[in-house]
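[Meeting: bench + compute handoff]

Bench side (C.D.) handed over the final construct sequence. Compute side (W.E.) agreed to return the predicted structure before the next meeting so the bench team could plan truncations. Sequence as handed over:
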Amino acid sequence: MKIIIKNLNVFDPACCEEIKALLLQQAQQLDKIMTTQTELTQQLLDLKAQLVKVADEVKAQVTALEEALTNAAAVTPEVETALADLKGTVQALDDLNPDTVVEEPQPEPF
């Protein structure tokens, strides 16, 4: 972002130099802020991608466990409890970021 001053009326030349120095300092600070924002944005996008990857891996593992338990001849109550606990943990992680609800547009009354 560039700051452009089209007209600056200053009666004291020393004041003019001071204002120019302050504007330069502010422009440098703004550049630093924007760079920091860009870096932060990339870090957030990287974390989101990592979380999506982890979620897919966990869901695949839970599905594989469910299939293995379904195909097992006999399952102990402890195994059923452990699977229920695992599903609860997965759901708690999923609930950290609520799903987006798309609302249907309501017809306008006549």
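W.E. noted at the follow-up: The first helix runs from residue 13 to 71. C.D. will use this when planning the next construct.
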